[in-house]
Fold this protein.
Amino acid sequence: MTSLDGMTAPAAQAGAVTPARRSSRRAGAGASAARRRARWAGWLFALPALVMYAVFELYPVLTAVQYSFYDWDGIGVATPAGLQNYVRVFTEPQLVASIWHSFALILFFSLLPVTLGLVVASITREIRSQFAGGVARTLMFLPQIIPGAASAIAWTWMYSPDGAVNQLLSAVGLGALRTAWLGDFTWALPAVGIIGTWLATGLCTLLLLAGIGKIDASIYEAAQIDGANRIQQFFAITLPGLRSEIGVCITITVIAALASFDVVFMSTQGGPGYATTVPGVQVYQLAFTENRVGQSSALAVVLSLLVLAVILPLQRLFRER
Amino acid sequence: MSRQHLVRPARAAVAIAAFASLATVTACGAPGASSEPAATTAATSAAISTQAPTSPVTITLYDGQGLKGVDDALIAAFTKKYPNVTVKATYDPDNVTTQNQPRQLAAAEPPDLIRVISVSSGVKNGLLTNLDPYAAAYGWDKLPASQLAQFRAKDGVAGSGNLYAKPTGFTMTGLYYDKANAAKIGMTNPPASVEELTALMAKAKSAGLVPMVVHNKEGGGVFPFQLLLNSMLGPDKVAAWVFNAPDATIDTPEAVKAAQQVADWNKAGYFPDGVNGLDANAADALFASGKAVFFPWGNWDAANIDKTLPGKAGFIPMPPATAGGQVGAMSDAATAFGIPAKAKNKDAAALFLDFLSSDEARQIAVDNGFMPSGTDDQAAPTIPAGSVKTDVVAAFKAVSAAGGQTPFVQNATAGISNQAWNPETQLLLGGKSDPQKYVANIQAKYASELGR
């Protein structure tokens, strides 16, 4: 449940530098004690953060794992349930469907924003004027400032039968396509997904722009002199140069898709029917509406493992060589 | 070196403490085991008093934000009558009361008066005070049985047994109607049967009006279904189902018939376009626009409708399945207050509960759009002329007299509204389900959540 906000940056590389530095230090027996002391002193500095981590991250995770093996209403005495809660996660059709929906959302929360971000970032790079570039960046990043829940409400209005989307369709002569987007069994999931696209594109654009800024401008110049057009430059220079930034974008947005909660909860609550149920909303409803804390914890644990199973290979794929 | 010796034990202590705290988490056994169940019987044997306190006492109250208006008015009137009592109220946003209330109730120091959402779960965990001694002492037994039945429980089943809560007032459901449009389609008297209602809606349809404002984005489509069900299945069976009586089922021919009627109306185009995408606000706007005739909804919207259609809207109970048959309406407590087993000032809290059916409190309930709790021989609260509330109170009286008050089917279990009623009704109105499947799926969810 801790990754529900979906925007927690990966912290995998945190301790990667220490072994190298340690091996480079060669010291005699007398210095070894001092060295050890220094090492522990380092931990002391980290202690406040570690305590916070243990209390607010580790402890809830461990209790969630524990709860997942019980039937518990959150108040009374729990009864052991063995693996029953986990069996249900994979056999109750609505829970299984919710997991599939979250995978479908990857298209909208991750692939589309990264693609759009790449296009926009490449175009924005070309803007010579400092002012215009700044305005473009600010406008692109604006959706990121608005809380997902708030933008979901705004989008709900736009999607309503008399909302902006349908008015726009009528205005351009496509009135026949008018529908209650969030109430339509076919369109509800894509409609929710587009809210996510709108939210994530700005973040991706900004990250990718920063990455493009790091690419040596002389490479572009050289390519231009060699006669490479913009498209060729994009595929030969920009795309390879952004490898790690794309990796970060994909990681963050895939987590946001798999663990999505706020946008779905505020716009459809999983409806119509069960067309937009996602694990994040199910975890919430099982725990706090149905008071099935054990079942909810089991789904949350499965969701966390699922996120890890998807993210770890991606991390490997995008690692700089 | 000496510093190192000082550091080491401290470090070890931290490590041990950290480990111990994690170990207690995982090794403490079943969650919730440590909380001792409070004995409900203790309250029964303890001496009670119905005397107004002679020295200052402060009681605490917990409710949802949406009821702050009525609660604050009740508290003001109560503390004016009993100056020694101070009431400190806490309100949670309505969308989290369901989640927070069980935790408030289970707290080490719970409020003295708490909104009771599920009588049976509160009783199961021994967290609510049995109010029978107070009921006997104050004479609450004189209230019509239907007004208190839903706050009683016995052996984990609500509906009868010991009393655990008392209401501030009641909600009421039925059909709002636009008077001008009703006249246009020739409705001079309220329809006497579902058949007559259907005929009126057909006329409305051909007159280019929206016959019935149903909004199903958040499950409002359950309203027309249950309004029909109350009459077709009968209030007692509906109530038994909601109260989880053993063997209660909604998978019956009568329920299928009610669902069929709703599906037929929908198919005939009597509901607005995009009914599954319409929320309550949009429905309000549609009804206020003067393009609709009927609106199956409840008393909570009366004040709003007085503003948007002043003097132009009426309210009737859903007509019975056949003329002269059983009328019914969903009607439960605005808030039912109970006293937690661990509350400190039970006598003063009970004094407040008694006050809830006084003439002053009844007037406050009506002023805030609720139906008053009380006996028939009490003075009728006054309502401003021209308000649709007059119709709502009259409808409540008629339904109460016919024994037609039923609890909401969405409250049968904690998860059934979100996990079955809303999605299944969306499937039904979206043409993705059929009436038989509709009731069968809901019954299956009901049974699985109750572990049957």
Remarks:
- Residues 2-27 of chain B form the longest helix (26 residues).
- The two ends of chain B are 69 Å apart (CA to CA).
